[in-house]
Specification:
Layout: E1 19-27, E2 34-42, H1 57-66, H2 71-82, E3 90-91, E4 101-107, H3 118-126, E5 130-134, E6 143-149, H4 152-156, E7 171-177, H5 187-213, E8 235-245, H6 247-258, E9 264-268, E10 287-292, H7 298-305, E11 314-319, H8 336-341, H9 350-369, H10 379-382, E12 389-391
Parallel strand pairs: 1-3, 4-5, 4-8, 8-9, 9-10, 10-11
Antiparallel strand pairs: 1-2, 2-5, 6-7, 11-12
Helix pairs in contact: 1-2, 5-6
């Protein structure tokens, strides 16, 4: 895939002290398995390549379906706009760390997939974290895939094309696309079922990383060149957190309720609708809400406020001039007029916005994971102390609504 529309645009490189590697892991080839992209501190290698931001054309098709666009036309448009961009990480580069790495499980938003938040995930990995960006199989991703065994007739036809070099030879790839709400269908039952599955997938990813850390030999369905045995005893499993955007923000809260191994959660512009009300008092971990200025509304903020606590730290800030899409990578990859037309860019410089988000995230993680690092230099951001931040929210919420 390639294009001619990448002048001076690109996903910003990570700023931390470590180079960043990435690789894909699929446990169990069926739809019930677990699929994530792992970002990690790595040895810098001259030979290592940076992978395509959009892995293959089926993801363009999924984005087209999600945006209700014609697939053929939108594939050309998306390929022109985004086809040449690379992830700011080295594919399958050898793992390297000076100590045990805290672990982050990242959950994407509605209509997204595992590669679309690489600016955030790569930055966290460059600061010494191991980050698993889950690709959800609940039909909320634009596109994802799993495999099935070949039928007899398919074994006879060895000429069927492989769409990716890491695909196993003896299995057939099955694509799963975004499921739109049906006409007349109530939305809450679907989204509530999805958020529960998403949280389970995050926990499965954590369980798999726990096995890898303990030295258990794992079977990766995908034929990557990464040596998973190098991750033995590499993770600090006392310091685990969940981070997510939009639907992924709700997934963070669901996951915290289900799994106490998550020591805290960071919800980026969370969409609270999918969550059961009865869940809120059962969440016992600290939570940090980092919101955009343009997406939030009173009903959503009032649901966040239901998590307020006198004894557990629950923080909220709003980044001025941001829109909902200021968190995924799209915001870096479009010029001003296309970005604003498609609501991918706000009024603030997107790199400044993501810097504020990442620094506030790191400060919160140092505070609640007990890290010995320099991230506490950004502690004022947790309280919204910056010219580009609003402490709490810009939305007026009546106390009676909470």
């Amino acid at each position: 895939m390639g294009n001619t529309c990448s002048n001076n645009l690109g996903i910003p490189p990570a700023k931390g002290p470590s180079a960043v590697g990435c690789t894909d892991f699929m446990m169990d080839y069926t739809a019930q398995g677990c699929f994530f992209r792992l970002y990690y501190p790595c040895q810098k290698s001259e030979k290592a390549e940076k992978p395509d931001w959009i892995p293959c054309k089926e993801y363009f098709n999924g984005l087209a379906d999600f945006m209700k666009m014609n697939r053929t036309l939108s594939e050309r448009i998306f390929n022109y706009l985004f086809g040449s961009f690379k992830i700011p990480a080295y594919l399958d580069a050898p793992f390297k760390s000076n100590g045990k790495c805290p672990v982050i499980i990242f959950s994407h938003g509605l209509g997204a997939f595992r590669t679309l938040y690489s600016a955030i995930c790569a930055e966290l990995a460059s600061q010494g974290f191991i980050v698993a960006s889950v690709e959800h199989r609940d039909e909320s991703a634009s596109a994802t895939y799993y495999f099935r065994e070949k039928a007899e007739s398919e074994n006879a036809n060895e000429n069927s094309p492989k769409t990716c070099s890491s695909d196993p030879d003896d299995l057939i790839k099955e694509w799963m696309y975004y499921r739109a709400l049906q006409h007349g269908e109530s939305e809450f039952p679907l989204r509530n079922k999805q958020v529960k599955q998403r949280a389970d997938e995050c926990i499965r990813a954590l369980d798999k990383l726990t096995e890898i850390n303990s030295g258990i030999i794992v079977q990766n369905v995908l034929q990557t060149h990464f040596d998973w045995t190098t991750l033995e005893n590499s993770m600090d499993l006392c310091r685990i957190t969940a981070v997510g955007h939009s639907f992924g923000g709700a997934t963070v809260i669901e996951a915290l309720c289900k799994e106490v191994k998550f020591k805290c959660g960071i919800a980026l512009d969370a969409w609270m609708f999918p969550l059961d009300d009865e869940l809120f008092p059962r969440v016992k971990q600290p939570i940090f809400f980092i919101n955009s200025e343009k997406f939030q509304w009173a009903g959503n903020i009032s649901r966040m406020r239901k998590l307020d606590s006198a004894v557990i730290q629950r923080k909220m800030i709003t980044i001025k001039g941001t829109v909902h899409q200021s968190f995924p990578d799209f915001t870096f990859l479009t010029g001003n007029w296309i970005g604003k037309l498609m609501k991918l860019k706000g009024e603030i410089d997107p790199q400044l916005a993501i810097d504020l988000c990442n620094k506030a995230t790191l400060a919160f993680l140092q505070r609640h994971l007990g890290l010995e690092n320099v991230f506490n230099q950004w502690d004022p951001l947790i309280d919204g102390k910056d010219d580009n931040l609003i402490p709490g929210t810009n939305i007026t919420v009546l106390q009676s609504a909470i």
